[in-house]
Amino acid sequence: MDYIKIIIVDDHPLIREGIRKILSLEPRILVVGEAGDGLQGLELARKHSPDVILMDINMPRMNGIEAARLIRQEMPEVQIIALTIHDDQAYVVETIRAGANGYILKDVDVQDLIRSVLSVADGHSVIHPVVTGKVFGELRRKTAAPSEEREPLTDREMEVLSHIARGEPNKLIAGRLCISEKTVKNHISSIFRKLGVSDRTQAALYAVKHRMVHL
Questions:
Q1: CB-CB contact of 81 with 103 (8 Å)
Q2: Distance CA 45, CA 43 (A)
Q3: How far apart (Å, rounded) are the C-alpha atoms in residues 195 and 49?
Q4: pLDDT values of the chain reduced to their tens digit, one per residue, 215 residues
Q5: What count of Cα atoms within 13 Å lies in the side-chain half-sphere of residue 128?
């Protein structure tokens, strides 16, 4: 069996223990390391090359957002899920911009946590429904309501959007689609215009909300 290798990064030992016990219920998941802060998490990622990292946000020495950013730069193939108590937009935006593929809350149901890990390991993105609803509430006050008359995205733009929703940077998207980074940027600008959004986070959330990408 090919295991999904997991690293748990949280500064509370009891929370790490609880997460480890939950993940042990799924035979395909193997926890290969635990860390108490972002710096230790980065070191373990370098050592074990995990498939998925479950990352808290507020931690000593190095927080989860900075750790996620460094890990994605060094190891873009590693998937990162923020597992946190914070559901406000500022944290969501910064965490996704740092490269997280998922954002779920610590009160998540046991089976939902396992499903989220399996989904992200398979290359999809996950966002806690409460977080999605709250952030969209903010976005509705800042962006125009969706219109049936919006100019449709091209097939290539849909491909780029799916990669944006996974939190992938432009360089990685360009490599996956065999196009230049400049072309990726042009597609992203067109996507923002057509969807009526102003950044990657809004585009990703729009795509999830309107089922434009498969998660």
A1: yes
A2: 5
A3: 36
A4: 689 999 999 999 989 999 999 999 999 999 999 999 999 999 999 999 999 999 999 998 899 999 999 998 999 999 999 998 887 777 888 888 888 888 998 888 898 899 999 989 988 888 877 666 666 555 555 544 444 567 889 989 999 998 888 778 899 999 999 999 999 999 999 998 888 888 887 788 788 777 787 65
A5: 22
Residue-wise DSSP of the chain: ---EEEEEE-S-HHHHHHHHHHHTTSTTEEEEEEESSHHHHHHHHHHH--SEEEE-SS-SSS-HHHHHHHHHHH-TTSEEEEEES--SHHHHHHHHHTT-SEEEETT--HHHHHHHHHHHHTT--EE-HHHHHHHHHHHHTTSPPP-TTSPPPPHHHHHHHHHHHTT--HHHHHHHHT--HHHHHHHHHHHHHHHT-SSHHHHHHHHHHTT-S--
Q: How many residues does the chain have?
A: 215
> In angstroms, rounded to a whole number, what is the distance separating the alpha carbons of residues 49 and 197?
35
What the block records as the tokens of 40 is: 């230790």
CA distance 194 to 145: 12
Say if CB 191 and CB 153 are below 8 A apart: yes
Q: Are the CB atoms for 84 and 57 separated by under 8 Å? A: yes
